[in-house]
Amino acid sequence: MKYNCDMIADLLPLYIDDVCSQSTRQAVEEHLSECPPCRKLCDEMKQRDPMIDMNIARERDNVISNQAKFFKRRSAVAGCIIGAVFALPILICLIVNLATGAGLTWFFIVLAAMFIPTSLIVVPLMAYEDKFFWTIVSFTASLLLLLGVCCIYSGGSWFLIAASSVLFGLSVPFMPFVVRSKPVAKHIGNHKALVLVSAYSLTYILMLLCIGLKSGSENFFTIAALYSLSPFIFMWGLFALIRLPKWNRLLKAASCILFSAILFFFSDTIILFLYNRRIYIPSPSFSYGTPEQINGTICWTVLISGIVLSAIFAIAGAIRSNIKKEISK
């Protein structure tokens, strides 16, 4: 016998549950064929009551559940304490307002302002799951509430512009995390990229609409639409190139680089043609005498660099596709 009985006894649970390697199984079986005591122990372990495993699993789940409840209670207690600390400035402001006869003017502003740190500190402690999602939602709501209260008490009419700008500004960095969170992901399925690009587009259009209505300028929407056309084409074009073709990643990267370079080169051409039917092509002067020459130099530099980079990625992607075809054969 190559192995002693103590070592085989330690390996028997793995052998019985069939979670050991082939070499370990072979060694155990060789030992069992030569050792009646270990063979008897193996038979006894195979005939053990399955309720034992169920009880062990139940106890394990209970321990994990109790620990989770313990940490949730501690987080809730910490959140309540921090919330009480944030309530102190609100109470002090209320007392000062009432004592000075100023009414409740500053009270509501301070109250709305205290929701911002609450959303960033208390909400993550109190939320049991999807903490980042609920933190973003509560922070956005509290910020909009503060803007609304300040607008009301200042007698202004700028709330829609500020609120729409805040929504667009926050959507740019945080929307990718929102679409991946469980409350949102379970409703949109595999359309995360589509929802993301749509959210960017809608919040941007809403911001321009609010600014245009407030400005009262007759040409605002025309100029805003012209200068927004290239970014929209860029965003939706990249989305289409990434999602629709069945190419590998290198070929998609090549197409995205080439598309971006061409769009950057012709962006001014599109704007000027739609605005006054002027046909403008950047001049390849590669000099810096006038702003137009500087713009032409930048456009041609970006175009040539994009063509070179896209060609490199395209060649690498084609080689990779051919290798995969050869392997599949």
Which SSEs are present, and which pair or pack?
Elements: H1 5-16, H2 22-34, H3 36-46, H4 50-100, H5 105-126, H6 131-154, H7 159-180, H8 182-188, H9 192-215, H10 220-243, H11 249-276, H12 291-328
Helix pairs in contact: 1-2, 1-3, 2-3, 4-5, 5-6, 6-7, 7-9, 9-10, 10-11, 11-12
Quick gist of this model?
With 329 residues, the protein is an all-alpha fold. It has helices spanning 5-16, 22-34, 36-46, 50-100, 105-126, 131-154, 159-180, 182-188, 192-215, 220-243, 249-276, 291-328. Among the domains are: 70-156; 243-329.
List keywords for this structure.
329 residues, 12 helices, flat, mainly alpha, 84% helix
3D architecture notes:
This protein is an all-alpha fold and 329 residues long. It has 12 helices and no strands. Among the domains are: 87 residues; 87 residues. It is 84% helix and 0% strand. The protein starts with a helix and ends with a helix.
Q: What letter string, H or E per element, gives the SSE order?
A: HHHHHHHHHHHH
How does the major sheet shape up? none
First CA to last CA: what distance? Answer: 48 Å
Structural class, by secondary structure, is: mainly alpha
Measured as a percent range, the helix fraction is over 70%
The general outline is: flat
List segments where confidence is low: pLDDT < 50 over at least 5 consecutive residues: none
Please give the count of helices. 12
In percent terms, what proportion of residues is strand?
under 5%
Average pLDDT metric: 84
- The counted number of beta strands is 0
Radius of gyration: 33 Å
